[in-house]
Amino acid sequence: MAAARGARGPKVVALGGGHGLYASLSALRLLTDNITAIVTVADDGGSSGRLRQEFGVLPPGDLRMALSALCDDSEWGQTWRDVLQHRFTSDGPLNGHALGNLLIVALWEQLGGSVPALEWVGQLLEIRGRVLPMSSMPLKIEADVTENGICETVRGQVDVAVTQGHVDHVRLLPENPPAQPEAIEAVHDAEWVILGPGSWYTSIIPHLLVPELHQALCETSAKRVLALNLRSEKETRGLSVAEHIRSFNDHAPELRLDAIIIDPGVIDDRAEIERAAQACGAQLLARNVRMNDGSARHDPLRFAAAYRDAFEQI
């Protein structure tokens, strides 16, 4: 369900997937009701991967997570969020499936379109905003990976995410996939576009590899913000913060950024990070966005404050 006209706050589009996008949406919803989440559709593991393989559908898991992040604060919204997130544990074929994944696939079969089905789930949760897939077809990630001096090709989101080698470059299969039209419209209509945080090569970079979406991100009049992770993941093992930013620039050299949000705790070489940010056209915003429990999780209030600073200062 799209945010109503005149709803509170600026028009924001957030791109990503999984827990990173969930963290971003949980913060952004404190600032605005005009949110469109654009979600990666390359997951091939777990419940999503099984449903994708069995039914030939978009992987529903990251879409479910985004819907849950935007649910209403009422008892109704919170209850339905918990129902969607419920994961079955059994000795049978339902083991590991999230109920929300099954519901989304059922609605896709009933309605015959991915966007109307997601809007029905959004109405059930009374979400603040809208959730869209980045492409109208399920995609596969392929990466060039170097390990012990040997370059090889790794295929599939799960395998790329856990690779032991250094990821040099990623691409999507099929090549030049179509973007979801509503996602393109949202990017052009946005005042702010947020990329990240999340798995670097499997949740953030893929958005840059859909040609129509890439073009829209370059052409939009919206300000663009990149939110960096709180820790390095397996797929970016050994990559410095500046190298993260440079890899973004390598995959989309013509895409300018306006701001990069980074937690001070992950700054390794401030001068080098500043240089990498400036090469992308971005101002570096160092803000404490981490939870106080020592985990690598974003605090929604602190993260929202960082986004608010970006909205007010850039």
What's the number of structural domains? Answer: 2
Distance between the termini: 29 Å
Topology as a string of helices (H) and strands (E) = EHEHHHHHEEEHEHEHHEHEHEH
The helix-and-strand class reads alpha/beta
| DSSP strand count | 10
**Which residues sit in consecutive blocks of at least 5 with pLDDT less than 50?**
1-6
- Give the neighbour order of strands across the main sheet: 3-2-1-7-8-9-10
Sum up the overall morphology in one term: globular
* Gross CATH architecture of the largest domain: 3-Layer(aba) Sandwich
Report the helical percentage.
40-55%
Q: In the CATH hierarchy, what is the superfamily of the largest domain?
A: CofD-like domains
CATH class of the largest domain: Alpha Beta
CATH topology call of the largest domain: Rossmann fold
Organism: Ancrocorticia populi
Subcellular location: Cytoplasm
Function: Required for morphogenesis under gluconeogenic growth conditions.
GO biological process, one term: regulation of cell shape
Explain what this protein looks like in three dimensions:
It contains 13 helices and ten strands. It has 314 residues and is α/β, with parallel strands linked by helices. It has two domains: 12-139 and 171-313, CofD-like domains (Rossmann fold, 3-Layer(aba) Sandwich), CATH 3.40.50; 140-170, no CATH class. A seven-stranded parallel sheet has the order 3-2-1-7-8-9-10, with helices on both faces. A three-stranded antiparallel sheet has the order 5-4-6. Helix 3 packs antiparallel against helix 4 and helix 8 packs parallel to helix 10.
